[in-house]
């Protein structure tokens, strides 16, 4: 990974931060995306060898495209993209309104596509690259009060497969679906998930990052694939 330019969206906190730190440790030149969490983004960037930070509201395609122009302008290339930024809400499906649906899908699915598109334009003009889309256990398990979220993350899985076909052989596109990664947060629902996990524990951001790094370092012959980092929970 030494010297590879990798943009991570939503890199200020939680899983995104774990991924950025792991990439920096692997020698990559990390580009840190954030929207509202500037303080956390700067802290993460400082731990990633003073990586540059890029602000963009991913609800806006214009801002997405501007961000990728800034990244390409700064580095002259882009070797990898990790689409990590996402939103999550719990709502009874009978109570979901259009605004609730759009709040989730504008970032969880729409922005993933347009980030992939913007990245691909840079990569295809050069030597190609690797894209990793962060999906979710919610793409593999049906959660009744998260129907809008599950749909968005399942969409990421199929989008990954479609774009893998579209941009092979120069770009690989793969997906990682984290399971229970609580970051010291807990509630009754999280505890139930942990109890049901065959591995007998919750996962960590570092374990998700390990799967992401695998795809970023792997041959481009591995593409269109999904790896669940969930301790076996999706198999139950």
Note down, in words, how this protein is organized.
It is built from 7 helices and 7 strands, in the order E-H-E-H-E-H-E-H-E-H-E-H-H-E. By secondary structure, the chain is an alpha/beta fold. Strands 3-2-1-4-5-6-7 form a 7-stranded parallel sheet, sandwiched between helices. It starts with a strand and ends in a 7-residue tail after the last strand. The model has no long low-confidence stretch (mean pLDDT 97).
Mean pLDDT: 97
| End-to-end gap | 35 Å
Q: Any low-confidence stretches, pLDDT <50, length ≥5?
A: none
Rg measurement, Å: 17 Å
Tally of extended strands? 7
Strand content: 5-15%
Helix content: 40-55%
Oligomer: single chain
Topology as a string of helices (H) and strands (E)? EHEHEHEHEHEHHE
Give the overall form. globular
Record the strand order, biggest sheet: 3-2-1-4-5-6-7
What characterizes the major β-sheet?
7 strands, parallel
Question: What's the helix count?
Answer: 7
Given helix and strand content, the structural type is: alpha/beta
Keywords:
alpha/beta; 7 strands; globular
Give the topology, please.
Layout: E1 5-8, H1 14-25, E2 29-34, H2 38-47, E3 53-55, H3 61-75, E4 80-83, H4 98-124, E5 129-134, H5 147-167, E6 171-178, H6 188-196, H7 205-217, E7 226-229
Parallel strand pairs: 1-2, 1-4, 2-3, 4-5, 5-6, 6-7
Helix pairs in contact: 1-2, 1-7, 3-4, 4-5
